[in-house]
Structures are given as C-alpha cells and as structure tokens.
Amino acid sequence: MTEILRVEHLCKHFGAIKAVNDVSFTLNKAELLAMIGPNGAGKSTCFNMMMGQLKPTSGSVYLRGENITRMAPRVIWRKGVGRTFQITATYQSMTVVENVQVALMSHNHKIFSIRPYAHKLYRDQALGFLETVGMQDQADRHAAVLAYGDLKRLELAIALCHEPDLLLMDEPTAGMAPKERIALMQLTADIVKDRGISVLFTEHDMDVVFGHAHRIMVLNRGELIAEGTASEIRNNAYVQQVYLGGGQLYKKSEEGHVNA
Amino acid sequence: MLELTSINSFYGKAHVLSNLDLSVERSEIVSLLGRNGAGKSTTMKSIMQIVVPKTGKVTFLGKDITGMSSHRVAKMGLGYVPEDRRIFTDLTVLENLEVGRQPSREGTVTWTFDMLFDMFPNLAERRQNRGKELSGGEQQMLTIARTLMGNPSLILLDEPSEGISPLLVETMAKVILQLKSEGLTVLISEQNLHFAQLVADKAIIIESGTGKYTGSFDDLNAKPEIRDAYLTV
Amino acid sequence: MGLFIAQLLTGLANAGALFMVASGLSLIFGVTRIVNFAHGSFYMLGAFIGYSLLQVLPGMVGFWVAMLLAAIAVGVIGVIVELLVLRPIYRAPELFQLVATFGVILVIQDLALMIWGAEDMLGPRAPGLKGIVRIMGEPVPTYDIALIVITPFVALALWYLITKTRVGILVRAATQDREMVSALGVNQSWLFTGVFFLGAALAGLGGAIQLPKGGADLLMDFNILASIFVVVVIGGMGSLPGAYLAAVLISVLNVFGVTYIPQSTLVLMFVVMAVVLMIKPYGLFGREEVAGEHGQVGEVERPFKPAGLNARLIVAAFLLVLALVPLYGSAFSMVLITDIVIFCLFAASLHFLLGIGGLVSFGHAAFFGGGAYVAALIVTYSDTPMEFALMLAPIGAAMAAVIIGWLCIRLTGVYFAMLTMAFAQLLWSLVYQWGEFTGGDDGLLNIWPSDWLNDTTVYYFLTLIIGVGGILLLRHAAHSPFGYGLRAARDSARQAEAMGIHTKRVQWVAFTFAGAMAGVAGGLFVFSKGSIFPSELEIARSFDALIVVFLGGVKTLSGGVVGGAVLETIKDFLTRFEYWRMTLGLLIIGVVILAPDGIVGSLRKASERLGITKRPEGEV
Which of B176, C243, C509, C565 is the right S-S partner for C235, CB 3.0 to 4.6 Å? Predict the structure, then answer.
C-alpha cells in the first residue's frame, strides 16, 4: 500500500486549550478514511491544519513524503489536495459551470490573464467534471438558486478539477436528507475506486461512516482515542461512552435504513 | 394553539412555502419533517415573522400574528431556537441568558437561572465563560436555555439534532421530553425520522413548501410509500 | 519640562471632544453596521446649537446646561435622521446606507448655512473657568483642566452602560446578531433608535464642549471626519477604551506636532495610523470584522455574459451620437460632456473595484487627484511635453495604488474602507501642507495641453477616445479570467484560496489597475481645466465617486458609468442654485429609499416586471 498522507504528532493549542493534541495517523492510496468525534473534538481544526488554513502549534503533515506543514492552502492545493467545506463555499454570483471553470483557470495559471473571454474558457472540460457528479444538466443555472445537496455536488466537482491525489471532505453530507447522503457517499466511493484518490472525511451520520469508510478514527478532546474498522469502533466501549452513546439512535436508524 | 392557514412565503426571491397549512395543539410535541430545502426552516421563520408570509394567516393563541414584528411575537410567548445556534459569542453565558429574559407569563413556567442550570448542568459550570469558549454541544444547550428565559408557552426548535454527536442527540431528546413534562408545547423541525419519533406525538411532512402528511408516527410507519416518498430522495 | 507637561495637558484636553465624537461613531457602527458619514455633521450641529444656547443661557450653570441641551438636541436630530432616512433602508444592501448618510451631510450643511450663516463663530469662554493655572511655570487654561477631568467620567459612564446594564448587554448582543435579538423579544427598532440618539448626542456634546477652545464653522463636519475615522480605526472598531486611548494619542501628537514640525501636523496623524495598523491590523483593541453576519440582507449578484449584438449596436449608435456632437452641439455642451466622460471613467474604475472586487474604497480620489497632480507637477517642474505627462498620470497613480494597496488589502470590510480613506487624506494633507512644491491651497495653474490639442473640439475627441476606451477596457477586464478571479475572491475567499488563487494578490492587482484607470481620468481632468487644486484629493471627491457607483447600481455592470453620467448632469444643473447641496442631498436620499437597486438595477427590474426582458430563474 502506498502512503499518501502522514500526520505526525499534530498539536494545536489556543492558549491553555488543547484543541488538537498529538494526533498521528496515515492515509493510504485509494483509502476512504473517516474521522469522527463529538463537536469540538478538534476535527475541523485538524482539517484546517492539514489544508494550511491554520498553523499547527507543533507536529508535521507529509504529503507523499513531502513536508507540507505550514504551507498556504493554495500551495497545498497545487500539490494535489482538494477539499470540500462543511459550510458550502461556492461562487454565488456565477453559474454552476463557471464555478468549475474558475478552478480550471486557476489550475492552468490563467487567473491573471486579462485577454480572453472567461466564459468560453475550459467550458467543455468543466462540463465533463459536472457530468462526473451528475450536474451537467444544471450547468447554466445560477449557483445561488441551487438546492443544498446540489451545492455539495458542485463543490465535489470543483475539488476534482485538478485531478487531486487526496480529497479532504469536512462533513460532506451535513444538512442532507438520508438518501441524499448515501448517494453522495456512494459517488465519492466510486470516485475513490475509479481514480485511485484517497479521501479523508469527517462525519456525524453513523450510517454514512459505518457504511462507507474503510477505516475510522475517533477524536475526543483533541486526542485520537480509537482507530479501526467499523465493527471495532462500534464495539469500542470508550467510544460508546464519549461519542456513540447507548446506540439507541444510530441502531434504530440502521434498521430503518435496511427497511427503506 | 398555533395555526398556519395557506401560508405563502418567499425567501429572498424564491417561493419557499406554498399554501402551507399546519396546526399545533397545546401540550403537544409536533415534528415537522421533510428533506433539506423542503421549507422547514422557512416555516419556523414564517411563524416568528422573521420571514413575513406574503399571503396566508398565522394565528397564535387565537390572535392573528401575521405581519407582526418578531419581538412582539416573541413577547406573546413564542420561543424560537434557530438551526445554526446563533448564540452571542462575545457575551458570557449569563449575559446570553439575560438577552432572552422576559417577564413571567400566565399559564406557563417562569424560568430562573437556577432552574436552567439544573436542567443544563454543563452551563452552570461555565456561566462566566464567553459563548465562543463553549463546545458545540454547550452552545446548542445555551440556545435552548436562552429561549426558555423568555418563558415561552410554545417553543420552536429548528433542527435540534443536526450536526451534533449521537450522544448529544440523546441528551437533546431528554431535554425535549422534559420540556413537555413542564407543560410546554413544542414544534421541532427534523430530517431524522428516528429522532423525531423518539420525542414527538405527531408528524407533519412537508415537501416543496406544502404539507403532504399529518398524523401519528404509527400511521406513518404503516405507510412506507409516504415515508419513502418524502423523507428520502 | 514645564512646556512639555503643559503641552501634554493640552493634548489630553483636546482628546475629550475627539473621544466623544469617535465613541459615538463606534457605537452606532457596532449596532447598526452603518458607517455614519453624517457623524461629523452631528458634531458641527452640536457646536452651532451650543453657540446659540450660550447666547441665551448666562453664567456657569447656564454654560453647562447649554452643553447638555446641545447634546440632547443633536441626539434628537440623530433620532429624526434615523427614523426618516435610515429606518426605511435597513433592509437595503449594507453599504447603500452610507450613501444615504452622505445625503444627510449635504442637507445639514445647507441647513446650517441657512440658520447660522457663512460666518465662522468664535466660541465664548466658559464662565468660571476663564483663567489659567500655572503648572511648572507654564500657563494651562483652567477649562483644559476641567475637560481632562470630565472626559474620563464620560468614558466611564459609557463603559458602565455598555458592560454592566441590561441595555448594554442588549446592545452588544445586537452588535452581533440583531435578527436573533429581535426573535428573543427585544424591540430592535427602538434599540437602534436609542443607540443613534446616544451616538449623535455624544457627537453633539463633543461639538459643544470644544466651543471655548475653538468655535463653530461650516467646515467642521469634514474636518473632524477624517480624525474620528483615524481614532476609531487606531482604537479598534467598537472598542471604548481603544477610542479613548487613540483620541489621546492623536491629540497629544498633534499638539507636539504643531510645536516641533508645524508643516506636517496633518500628515502625522495618518502616519501614526499606518504604523499602528501595520503592527495591529484591527487597531489597538479591535477584532476582525466578519463580513456577512446574520441579519444582513442583500441580493446575490447575477451571473453576466458579454453584451450581445443588440446591446453593442445600441452602444455604438450612442457613441456615434457623441462623436458627432461637435457638428451640432455648442462649445459649452462639449465641455460638459468632456467633464461627464472623465467623471464616468473615474466612477467606472471605482465600480470595478467595488462591484466586481467587493472592495469598498473610501479613498479613490487619491488616484484621480494623484494622477492629476503627477501630470501637473511634471509639467510645472520639467519641460515635459503634455502627451508624455498624460501618460505618466496613470503610471504615477498606479505607483501610489501599489503602495497604498499593499497596506490596505490585508484588511477587509470597514477597516479596508477606513484605511483607504486615511491614505487618501494623507496624500491630500501632503499636497495641502507642502505648499512650496505643490502650491498648497492655491493649486497648480497653467497646465494646458499641447497646442494641437488646445482646442475644445480636439480635446473633446481625445477625452472621448481615451475615456470610452478606458471604460471598455474595465468592462472587458470584468469578463476576463482576471475578472472572474476577482469575483471568486469576493464571493468566497475561502474557496478561492483552496483552489490555488492568491486572493490578496488578485485584489492588489485590481486595486492597482483601478487606481491607474482613475489616474487616466485625473490626467484628462487636469489638462481639460488647466489647473488642479487639493480639493480633487478630498474625501468629498472620493464620496462623489462612491455615491455615483451606488446610485448607478453596484450589482450591475454599467452602474458606475450610468450613475456618473446622471449625477454629473444633475450637478451641473443644480449648482446654479444657492442651496444646491440640500437639493442634491434630498435627491440622493430619495433614490436610496425609493430605488435601492440603483438606477440601472431598478430599470432592469422594471423592464423584467413589464416583460421586456427575461427574469432569471428563481426570482419573483
């Protein structure tokens, strides 16, 4: 197995608060790795450090063996890391396809170009990526009027634009209906398989996590408390105590899932 | 107690609610179900008159409140807990509660700081902490506590289980049941059918801003075609 | 040593009025998110009303009663402004409200002129405090000592109100999320009105209390505006201790400046601010302002495409009409159109920055006036041909924009806006105070074009070609990948950075580009007038462009140009009347209230409503 991402002893302290404390893990090629944990456990902080939005207090992040700690987000992106956001971030004043075109312009170093008309640039290529996520028929709609689930898919198309090796997805299915969640994660799993991309994602929906992740990490109060397969995590007493609870809800929803 | 009659609401430019009817009886827990974008949050906001319905009528305690300003609606005893927490991050827990404080009201519990701290022990420890220093779960609880300070007789909970850990979702369910036992009427909006089922007496399903189903959960479970049509994609 | 202490005390005393006005501005901004440009006008009104009250209220008690009454009167005026002008537009796009407050400035200027006349008034000295105290041998006015004592009490009272009382808690809560406050049963309209009363009253008190040290005149409003913005920015938006500290810092520095480096008093203040912001970008006690907080409304811009054939033909036909003006129009009409085209280019350059880039600059005149001065100085001091000087105007403006942009782009929102204004003021004060080089207030004269261009008709064509060319270039840039990158940075800097776009660099280049285009306009301007004065660098000039962009429609591509043409034409007509400012002010307020989408935006909506053009999906 080829290692894509390695995180070593990552720490982030805000004053006396240890938001992330000594987190280490690795992510292999074409692996779908989930990071779960209570609110405030440090998942987003971890993500933001890996993607360069936040500078770690200590520790390192390696991408294909190269130390990318403390690099700016845009530099990390150019090294082949894509990301989607917990709260969707798209260009609301543009059409769907233009959103993707901007990413392609950036990928091809055309952002400072003033000569060509932008709306014609890389349009066909952009439509291709929209097709991957099933959005091609909405290409010319105004991004501001999209449904939430479609925005999430648009973000995924944008993140795929520069053929990344690694995709970081922060709560990719938050705010979606159950079946929409499954569909999006299925799509992601297909992309992982077809393109050999590695994915690290955070999630609160246990159906999504147990149903799709190859491996699961549990974060609590900034520390990694467990790591393993779905059944290992589900049966871990400590994880149940701090995160999963009595299981009343997710077990129910699991049955519901089977019925539906 | 609360009644919406053929409500049409627009959010910005989009027609979100069309001819929505809905009613909530006293001491009932009603769950508004529907997928994302079905209009649940807009329904809540239309009740609070944060989004003023273009046509239709909202009556609360027998009084037409359509077009009234939000603060007057709140003063009548409607409590609103928004979906995205929206606590005042620079204010302390106590100050957050103070913003919500209203005079006591006939026919409903008068909440005090102490009662709320009993209900949310975590908040008691952190009363002098600023909102931004709280964890996500504590913030969620603070939003509810802050609304209770207004001594509402009906409380609107917008997606209380969204984005919190399964453990906290269980706590949330307990809190909602406790509110019911205090005699409050609750309208919650949910995407999670199982959570809704755990706490609510009645289900209302909306889709594209129109009511599609009203009735009990048992009945709903007996009609999987409705359940699957509107609660999943 | 004695002199040192005496000066320190004078500085502390001067800080009093400054603190009161600045804290009022800060308070109003905190809750309503409105940068109240009319705050200087409230200060001026405080001085005038205080002056009038002192004529009828004698004695020591009378004096202090007059101070208080002046504050209350101005507070009431503030409430009237809030109720009549601002309340109808709280739901309009955020920065549109600025324009309305600018309209208020114009109205109050003419009202003050009507009531108190054009003469400056010398403030009477405070009864009972007319004497001086000797401190280490140096005379210090007793009134100064009184001010030094009073100010901390006012500050303390304010601090107590904000941090300890229920009202204060509500105000702070509303600062963050006014919609939520309202949903919790608090009448936010009255909270707003109350805050406006307090803020305006503080400005009025500041104006009245400085009477014995200064006086009342019609220029006070703009004169203090820059200072209070500087104080608020240095102290940090919304911070009372910050405002106090910054007021003291600026006032003390000013007093020492007058003694030791008298030519640079005005510049000094802005240099201090630049230094502070380089170390602490959000002021001494401020925090980053997060844009797009709850309770803010404003429609999303629509996608746009380059104009279709029909639109291009219409524009071409219109340009043809303009090109043929020399055949049928008078010389006067050519001069007027020259003015309008120059102003449209200036406005279009700001529109590019503001509309496409989302960068609200309050100091765009720096580049218009800057370009004009570069050309004028080069012609004055070297035998440079006019053609070459005209080319240097945008280059000079671009160089200024590179430096100012580098310093400002790091900040966002209001801080960015305030900082750009401060740098524009810095340039203005340099030009104003460095008289032997720039001609100071007397300006630079006899800057005429080369002989072959020195003819109304020929210059008309030159302006038309360069001006329209510049506008089209700006427009094309909006459709280019660079324009898209700029919009991406505006719509979601988070996403843009995560897709490899260096957003700050994109914005910096845009700032420079817009500055250069304003410089082109400035160059054309100076040779069309034959002279240049510091007023072309003033705040008022920056505001002219700002207003035009808002009135034309920020969220439309042609808003800047159309707004520029309309306003310049109206102004040309109105300035023939005595009270033209008031008329213009009322007109501006009227447009803001009645047509919040701006002229172009409202026309577009009207045509959609009538079914002439297609309405975009999802809109009703």
Answer: C243
Nearest alpha-carbon partner for B82 in C417, C510, C180? C180
Q: Which residues of B touch A (CB under 8 A)?
A: 14, 35-37, 135-137, 140, 162-170, 191-195, 198, 224, 227-228, 231-233
- Amino acid (1-letter code) at residue B21: D
Q: How far is Cα of residue A88 from the mean position of the Cα atoms in its chain?
A: 11
Distances in Å between the alpha carbon of B126 and those of A38, B120, C181?
19, 10, 22
Choose one of C279, C301, C324: the last residue of a domain: C279
Question: Strands, E, within B2-51: which ranges?
Answer: 2-11, 14-24, 29-33
Answer yes or no: do C261 and C345 share one domain: no
Q: Could you tell me if A64 and A176 lie in one domain?
A: yes
User: pLDDT tens digits, residue range C299-332?
Assistant: 677 888 888 888 899 999 999 999 998 989 888 8
Handedness of CA A154, A159, A163, A169 (dihedral sign): negative
C105 within domain boundaries: yes
Whether residue C234 is found in the same domain as residue C346? no
Identify the CA nearest to C521 among candidates C380, C367, C345. C345
DSSP-assigned beta bridge partners for residue B33: B190, B205
Q: How many CB atoms lie within 10 A of CB C78?
A: 31
Residue C480, in any domain of the structure: yes
Domain presence at residue C313:
no
Identify the closest residue of chain B to C181 by CA–CA distance: B99
Minimal-distance CA residue of chain C relative to B149: C184
User: Are A62 and A103 contained in the same domain?
Assistant: no
Look-up of token digits 């807009």: B42
Backbone angles phi, psi at A258, to 5 degrees: -65, -45
In this complex, the residue of B14, B165, B232 whose CB is nearest that of residue A177 is B232
CA dist C388 and B30 (Å) reads 77
Query: Which chains reach chain C with 3 or more Cβ–Cβ distances below 8 angstroms?
Result: A, B
Domain of C30, CATH number, reads: 1.10.3470
pLDDT higher than 70, residue C94: no
Residues A152 and A203 in one domain: no
Tens of pLDDT, residue by residue over C585-615, are 998 898 888 887 788 888 888 888 887 776 6
Picking from A132, A163, A194, the residue at the C-terminal end of a domain is A163
Q: Under a CB-based contact definition with an 8 Å cutoff, are residues B135 and A39 in contact? A: yes
CA atoms within 13 A on the CB side of B114: 0
Length of chain C: 620
ipTM of the complex: 0.91
C254, C279, C304: which is the final residue of a domain?
C279
Q: Which residues of A touch C480 (CB under 8 A)?
A: 113-118
Q: Cβ C172–B88 below 8 Å, yes or no? A: yes
Strand-pairing partners, residue A60, are A8
Phi, psi torsion values for C97, nearest 5 degrees: -65, -30
Domains of chain B: 2-82+147-231 (3.40.50.300)
Residues of C in contact with B82 (CB under 8 A): 180, 183
Residue B110 and residue B105: Cα distance in Å, rounded?
Answer: 7
Last residue of some domain: A163, A180, A206? A163
Tell me whether C167 touches chain B (CB under 8 Å).
no
Do A175 and A111 lie in a common domain?
Answer: no
Q: Which of B135, B195, B233 has the CB atom closest to A183's CB atom?
A: B233
Domain hosting C386: range is 339-539
Structure tokens belonging to residue A43: 């998942």
Q: What residue numbers bound the domain in which A45 lies?
A: 3-80+166-259
Q: In chain B, which residues have their Cβ closer than 8 Å to the Cβ of C183?
A: 48, 50, 70-71, 74, 80, 82
Q: Which segments in chain B show pLDDT lower than 70?
A: 12-13, 232-233
Residue A244 in contact with partner chain B when CB distance is under 8 A? yes
Evaluate whether residue A85 is within a structural domain.
Answer: no
Cβ of residue B146 closer than 8 Å to a chain C Cβ: yes
Question: Of the segments A216-220, C285-289, C560-564, C575-579, which one has the largest average pLDDT value?
Answer: A216-220
